[in-house]
Each structure stands twice: as structure tokens, then as C-alpha cells.
Specification:
By secondary structure, the protein is an alpha/beta fold. The protein has 6 helices and 5 strands. It has a single domain (3-125), classed as HUPs (Rossmann fold). It is 40% helix and 19% strand. The protein has a 5-stranded parallel beta sheet, sandwiched between helices. The radius of gyration is 15 Å and the shape is globular. The structure holds 4'-phosphopantetheine (PNS). The site of 4'-phosphopantetheine has 13 residues, from strand 1 and helix 4.
Length: 161
Amino acid sequence: MTLAVYPGSFDPITTGHLDVVARALTLFDRVVVGIAHNAAKSGHHLFDAETRLSLARQALAQLPGAEVDLVPGLLADYCRGRGATAIVKGLRNGTDLDAEVPMALLNRDLGGPETVFLAAAPAHAHVSSSLVKDVARHGGDVSALVPPVVAAALRQELGQD
Ligand code: PNS
């Protein structure tokens, strides 16, 4: 059984993330969306980890082979504990690549598996959790960028219901 861990903040999960999960499932038997702690973003999250987990679970409920979990510490340790075949990441552009390559190498040094990069489909290349939150905060329509459950959670969190 091959298992990939797809780590990130997922604050919140977007259609771009869902596309990466679906495509990773063509390569691996199981894909675990790992809600991990990004020290650089700590304190800046809109949703707490439990809410991000719950939203991702609801968004992925119909996708056989996908699961969602919290990654409490080092990603490499989590991957070893799960016997993961690979880490999966989506790349939208060169900025993503520059940020991801050092993490891929460091995760390998830390005893983690290889990182496999999937090129973001053009339809999703402009979608990021940060932009989604910005649009939502200003009352814009994010229904094409996030699953319905996330759009509803954004409205509620931002007091727009
Ligand atoms: O979506 P993000 O916030 O860019 O994802 C970054 C994330 C959460 C995957 C990264 O910060 C991470 O792996 N954090 C877990 C702790 C860890 O293992 N840090 C060392 C990574 S080389």
C-alpha cells in the first residue's frame, strides 16, 4: 500500500488543494492531508487547527483514499510513523518552488521520504488560501475557489451570515 502525506496549513482548504489530492490519488493508494504547523504563519491563522481539520474532512468526504489528520510536530517524524511512501506538494510557480526545494531536502535529511511535486493545473494556479481570505474579508465571492462548506465557514467566521 502506497501512502502519500500532503502537508500544509490548509487555512482553509481550497479547490486547488482538492485538485492536488485527486491527482495524487492517481499515483498513491492513500493520500493523507496533513494539517501541520507552519511557524512563520503561527498566530496568523483565520481558522484553528481543529476547524481546518474538520473543513478538510468534509471537503474530502466523497473522495475514496483521501484522509485528513493533524501533524503535531515534525513532518518527517509523522511520515516515518505512518510509513509514508512520499510527501506530495503542489507547485503553482517559481516562488513555490524556491520555498519547497529546501523543505524537501531538509525533510529527507530529517529521515522523511522523498517529496513529489505536482504542477498546479492552470485553472488553480492563482488560488491560494491567503488570497481566498482576502477576497472573503472584503465580501467578495469565493465560491469558485473553495468547496461550499468552506465558503459557508468563511461567511460565518467573518460575520457575514
Ligand atoms: O501550506 P504551508 O503553510 O506553506 O505549509 C508549510 C508546512 C506546514 C508544510 C511546513 O511548515 C511544515 O512541514 N511544518 C511542520 C513542521 C516541520 O516539519 N518543519 C520542518 C519542515 S522542513
